[in-house]
């Protein structure tokens, strides 16, 4: 069972003790049934009830304490296990490569990291309660065997038939739940389009109708499968109650004709069977939840296995992530990259054989799809090349050195993310932040507060300016920007090219900028033009 594997792997505290206490609680609960039955008989026979009362109090106290302890410890154990899982998986997110993130997709990864552990956390107390009820049923059946072996055998046979039926139905339900997961992933992706593309849909009603049609189709497909599952679960629930009610007339009307001993205990037997209706219903109702928990845990295991497979080879190196802090030249030696694709039309970038010099301002130009962004990802170490190598001065950058190599760069890509705080920046100089806010003409829009900006709910161009401030605070030797000025107004664009870039360069920074602004090519030390994944032209100020 996936749940047991999860607890064995993740729990820092033994869960067997919880199960033991839960079992004691279940035994005490079943003992209450026997005490009541025998106390009732003692009342009829006018016997002393003191001992029954004392035993009842002890059993009741054991039941309450066991239930309280089991539920409380279960919550703590499962929360700790989920914390361990979340911490490890989020750490592994930092270890996987960009290609893995691009292939999996943010929506899928986010859903698996958040939805599954929530389900596990909410379900565990109920599962422990069901285990307690299971123990209660076991000892109630033992008690039934004590007062009537015939009833015990018949109940055991009926339970065996019921278990076989539940296992068969559970397997079918499990397969259907996997299909629901697949359909819901399609549904969630469509919802992401609905939210992220709201402006476009609002303008284009036909686009909205088509998307809603797709959402409805995915939702209906998932709903049909869920309806089938609900019917099967309903049948299981009904069968769980049916086998007890089917036993009662046999026990009450038929067996007394063949067993005199059975007649004497008919009241106790009937009470025990009626008592078992509640626990059996709880156990039957727990099967669907257990199926969902097992699927959730299986998805977490699968996600981690996929991440482990995608994580780069061992990164042991004498240089830590701060080991590369400066350079004179970056040599690009026949770097080549092909996107993973089964078709013959997979895009290939390279080979690139270039040198980037410290302190220069380099522009990269080219049409859409020419490979500019791919080249930047190779240059910054976000992609591993299929062939070729990077060298910092005379140091070859092997895969184990990529984390240290990436430390040379601050990046602002077209799909940049603006964080809510200056993560990774130590000893923030508030005066420096305010100076950059003024330089980027944002001092009247936002302020520095509590380790970040007071607002990031701004236009794309303004958010890019804040991202540039963050990059400057990181104080890395190389600044890589992709179409930074595309979202700026003409006045700021001119200021950016003719003033700001020069100031940043004079600070000793190397600037690599993708741009289409041909009016400002003259400010660059060099201009590279890309076409079909290759650098086709070099231009310097002198040429």
How would you summarize the topology of this molecule?
Elements: H1 2-10, H2 16-44, H3 50-95, H4 98-104, H5 106-147, H6 149-196, H7 198-203, H8 205-254, H9 260-264, H10 266-310, E1 329-338, E2 348-357, E3 361-366, H11 372-379, E4 387-392, E5 395-396, H12 402-406, E6 409-412, H13 430-439, E7 448-449, E8 452-453, H14 460-474, E9 478-482, H15 490-506, E10 510-514, E11 526-531, E12 534-540
Parallel strand pairs: 3-10, 3-11, 6-9, 9-10
Antiparallel strand pairs: 1-2, 1-4, 4-5, 7-8, 11-12
Helix pairs in contact: 1-3, 2-3, 2-5, 3-5, 5-6, 5-10, 6-8, 6-10, 8-10, 13-14
Largest sheet, strands/sense/barrel: 6 strands, mixed
Order of neighbouring strands in the sheet with most strands: 6-9-10-3-11-12
Number of helices: 15
Intertermini distance: 71 Å
SSE topology string: HHHHHHHHHHEEEHEEHEHEEHEHEEE
Overall pLDDT confidence: 80
Cα-based radius of gyration, to the nearest Å: 34 Å
User: Structural class of the helix and strand makeup?
Assistant: alpha/beta
Instruction: Determine the strand fraction and express it as a percent band.
Output: 5-15%
Shape: elongated
**Total number of β-strand segments?**
12
- Which quaternary structure do these chains form? single chain
Give the low-pLDDT segments: 316-322
**Helix content estimate:** 55-70%
């Amino acid at each position: 069972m996936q749940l047991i594997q999860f607890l064995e792997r993740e729990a820092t505290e033994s869960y067997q003790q919880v199960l033991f206490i839960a079992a004691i609680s279940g035994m005490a609960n079943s003992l209450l049934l026997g005490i009541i039955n025998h106390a009732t008989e003692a009342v009829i026979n006018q016997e002393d009830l003191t001992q029954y009362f004392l035993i009842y109090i002890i059993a009741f106290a054991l039941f309450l304490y066991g239930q309280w302890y089991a539920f409380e410890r279960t919550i703590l154990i499962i929360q700790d296990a989920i914390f361990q899982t979340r911490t490890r998986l989020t750490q592994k997110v930092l270890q996987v490569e960009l290609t893995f993130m691009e292939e999996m997709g943010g929506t899928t990864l986010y859903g698996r990291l958040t939805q599954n552990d929530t389900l596990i956390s909410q379900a565990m107390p109920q599962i422990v309660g069901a285990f307690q009820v299971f123990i209660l049923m076991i000892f109630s059946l033992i008690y039934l065997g004590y007062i009537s072996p015939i009833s015990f055998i018949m109940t055991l046979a009926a339970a065996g038939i019921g278990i076989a039926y539940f296992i068969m139905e559970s397997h079918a339900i499990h397969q259907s739940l996997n299909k629901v997961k697949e359909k819901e992933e399609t549904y969630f992706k469509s919802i992401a389009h609905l939210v992220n593309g709201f402006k476009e849909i609002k303008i284009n009603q036909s686009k909205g109708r088509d998307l809603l049609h797709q959402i409805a189709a995915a939702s209906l497909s998932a709903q049909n499968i869920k309806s089938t599952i609900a019917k099967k679960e309903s049948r299981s629930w009904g069968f769980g109650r049916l086998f007890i009610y089917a036993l009662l007339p046999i026990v009450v009307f038929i067996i007394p004709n063949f067993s005199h001993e059975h007649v004497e205990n008919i009241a106790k037997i009937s009470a025990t069977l009626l008592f078992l209706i509640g626990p059996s219903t709880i156990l039957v109702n727990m099967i669907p939840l257990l199926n969902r928990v097992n699927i959730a845990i299986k998805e977490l295991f699968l996600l981690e296995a996929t991440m482990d497979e995608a994580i780069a080879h061992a990164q042991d190196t004498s240089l830590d992530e701060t080991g590369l802090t400066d350079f004179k030249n970056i040599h690009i030696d026949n770097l080549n990259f092909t996107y993973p694709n089964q078709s013959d039309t997979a895009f290939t970038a390279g080979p690139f054989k270039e040198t980037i010099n410290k302190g220069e301002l380099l522009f990269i130009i080219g049409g859409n799809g020419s490979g500019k962004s791919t080249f930047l990802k190779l240059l910054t170490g976000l992609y591993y090349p299929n062939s070729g190598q990077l060298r910092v001065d005379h140091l070859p950058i092997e895969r184990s050195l990529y984390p240290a190599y990436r430390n040379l760069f601050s990046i602002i890509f077209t799909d940049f993310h603006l964080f809510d705080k200056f993560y990774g920046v130590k000893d923030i100089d508030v005066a420096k932040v305010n100076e950059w806010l003024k330089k980027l003409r944002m001092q009247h829009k936002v302020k520095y507060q509590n380790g970040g900006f007071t607002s990031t709910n701004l236009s794309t161009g303004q958010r890019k300016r804040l991202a540039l401030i963050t990059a400057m605070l990181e104080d890395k030797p190389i600044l890589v920007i992709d179409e930074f000025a595309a979202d700026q107004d003409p006045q700021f664009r001119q200021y950016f090219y003719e003033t700001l870039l020069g100031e940043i360069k004079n600070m000793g920074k190397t600037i690599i900028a993708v741009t289409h602004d041909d009016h400002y090519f003259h400010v660059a030390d060099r201009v590279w033009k890309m076409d079909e994944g290759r650098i086709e032209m070099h231009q310097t100020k002198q040429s």
